[in-house]
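Here is a typical sample entry:
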Amino acid sequence: MSHPRDQQIEADFALLVTSDSRTLEDDHTGNLAVSMLEAAGHNVIKRAIVPNDAEKIKKWILEAMESEASVIITSGGTGIGTVDVTVDTARGMFEKELPGFGEQFRRLSYDEVGVPGLMSRSTAGVIGKKLVFCLPGSSGAMRTALNGIILPGIGHMLWELSRR
């Protein structure tokens, strides 16, 4: 007998790419995310590219919180450089952090790309009843996170949040 947490669901996603140079036309990582999410039966209902600016990132996340999206994905700003402010911005908004996400993501990344995979500060958390995943900006990282963690687990994660 299956458990409600194992159900296949259709979720609405909001997708933010933080970049000082990308546009929607040349955003390969964002395009890949939309393609993978839609192929898995989900909807991307809000999408934008915002510069690496903490106030603009926070403003976009707050706008996404007002949308129908139940999951927010950010792409970019998870590294160790001075322009990488997405994780710090989102983490400051989290009500609960999901450290296991970052740990597992770095393990998968290490298996794929070696030591550079350990430099990601990728994380996830909960704001209200929404899941927030902060991913690196590369297409490979997006594919790894979606295939390895987010898509297989989204039904269970959203079920857990609905129990509040």
